[in-house]
Amino acid sequence: MTSKRRLGVETAKNRSRLIDAAVELMVEEGYAAVTARKVAAKAGLKVQLVYYYFKDMDDLILAVVKRNSVKRMKRFVRTLAGPDPLRAIWVMNRDSTSAASTTELLALANHRETIRSEVVRAAKEFRHLQIEAVEQLLGDYGLDREKVPPAAVVTIIAALSRAMAQDSALGVDEGYPEAVALVERGLDWLVQQGDGGAGGGDSVPREVPGLDES
Amino acid sequence: MTSKRRLGVETAKNRSRLIDAAVELMVEEGYAAVTARKVAAKAGLKVQLVYYYFKDMDDLILAVVKRNSVKRMKRFVRTLAGPDPLRAIWVMNRDSTSAASTTELLALANHRETIRSEVVRAAKEFRHLQIEAVEQLLGDYGLDREKVPPAAVVTIIAALSRAMAQDSALGVDEGYPEAVALVERGLDWLVQQGDGGAGGGDSVPREVPGLDES
DNA sequence: GTCTATACTTCGATAGAC
DNA sequence: GTCTATCGAAGTATAGAC
Of B37, B94, B42, B104, nearest to B68 (Cα)? Predict the structure, then answer.
């Protein structure tokens, strides 16, 4: 009813190519460069195909966001399966391959409602899952939730990771080595609480965490 | 030599208005909306004045970035003058009035070289000054730099602040109350080391910082 | 599904009169 | 310093033939 033009299948090969092209463009040149013409050119297709597969440009961007969310969730589930999930979460967050597109998506979400709601939805879901996982872990370690709130740990780790990814993309690394070292110390300590000095093997306990009296 | 067109004074009233308009547009609609026509319209001026005062659009954006840096530096210097500079730095970083433009500028810096170098320059300078200030403070408090590295403290605080500002702009606050509380606890503890339980008065020491054994 | 053709808008940027 | 006039390039989106 709403639109005269009516077509566009979901699992088509060219549709996927257009999304790929859009992601590349966003990373390389920024969201402003994601135009129908450029996307089509990068995908080796004609402009009109963009409008055949997507309602409009917002619809294309939305597809990019969703693909992004799905990929990240899959990685997260895989990550949790391994040993030392706490540090795995940290490393996963630190991974900066998707840092560039995250920055762009964040900026985009501020100004386009459809994008915003999807970004927010995915972010909340992801955050909750991480908190839940860490709650479980710290519980297993027998740690007091009051002293080491899982939500705080996850949030600080995520914040530091994102900032580091954003800054290193620009070539700014001032302070990060020290910050990372401090977090690592904290994680060492947390994990050490867990295996009680028996299981792991190569975990080097060292001392107390970061902010302790001298 | 390079350009035929040659004019544009630095301290003109209309020049400043154009920068104002550019900032507003960037915050409200994103950097892609900062076009010569829209900026002029928002400033109530004719399009051509944009090109009279600025070499090109990049030049305008650059002016926005510089104004931003200067403003932030001034706030920082003011901030350091007061009592409890450590917490003042934290509060200042948390301030989210400029969060929106920061997100945009960050995204922009990834793709435009002239913007990037200025953003990076300002970021590094600012970070160094903060680290220096905190080093001084923690030194006064008689704290061991190995246990509480100033660079790590500043970086984590800045990272958490930025992430929180970005997320709250979108309406995501999951985990932040807990993270903020943890940081506050840490700051309480640090400051407490400083005034030895004498000076301040209303500072409630409570206990040890965040990541301590139970 | 894909292409041709096309309408309309907005953009950056400049030349030159006043 | 500001305005009129003007380019050409690039953008979104649609209609309709094949």
Answer: B104
pLDDT at B161 over 80: yes
Q: Are B162 and A211 in contact (CB under 8 A)?
A: no
With the C-alpha atoms ordered A34, A37, A38, A42, is the resulting torsion angle positive or negative?
positive
Chain-chain contact of B152 with A210 (C-beta, under 8 angstroms): yes
CB pairs under 8 A between A and B: 189
Using N-to-C axis directions, what is the helix angle for B13-29 and B36-43, rounded to 10°? Answer: 110
How far is Cα B52 from Cα A69, in angstroms, rounded to an integer? 45
Is B98 within 8 Å of B68 (Cβ atoms)? yes
CA distances from A168 to A25, A58, A164, B98, B175 (A): 20, 29, 6, 21, 24
Chain B nearest C-alpha distance from A119 (Å) = 9
Interface check B145 vs A, CB under 8 A: no
- Beta carbons of B104 and B98 less than 8 angstroms apart: no
B125-151 pLDDT, tens digit each: 999 999 999 999 999 999 999 989 999
Within its chain, how far is the Cα of B43 from the centroid?
A: 25
| B160, amino acid identity | L
- Per CB-CB distance under 8 Å, the chain B contacts of A149 are 178, 181-182
Whether the Cβ atoms of residue A143 and residue A193 lie closer than 8 Å to each other: yes
Contacts with B116 from chain A: Cβ below 8 Å: 170
Classify residue A7 by burial, with Cβ atoms within 10 Å: 0-12, 13-18, 19+. Answer: exposed
**Closest Cβ opposite residue A120 in set B151, B158, B172:** B172
Residue B3's SS3 state is: coil
CA gap B62, B55 in Å, rounded: 11
* Strand C contact residues in chain B (41-100), C-beta within 7 Å: 47-48, 51, 56-57
Distance in Å, residue B1 CA to nucleotide C16 C1':
19
**Residue B82 pLDDT level (bands cut at 50, 70, 90):** confident
| pLDDT at B209 > cutoff 60 | no
pTM of the predicted model, to two decimals?
Answer: 0.89
Asked if the C-beta of A33 comes within 8 angstroms of chain B's C-beta atoms, the answer is: yes
Amino acid identity of residue A61, one-letter, is: I
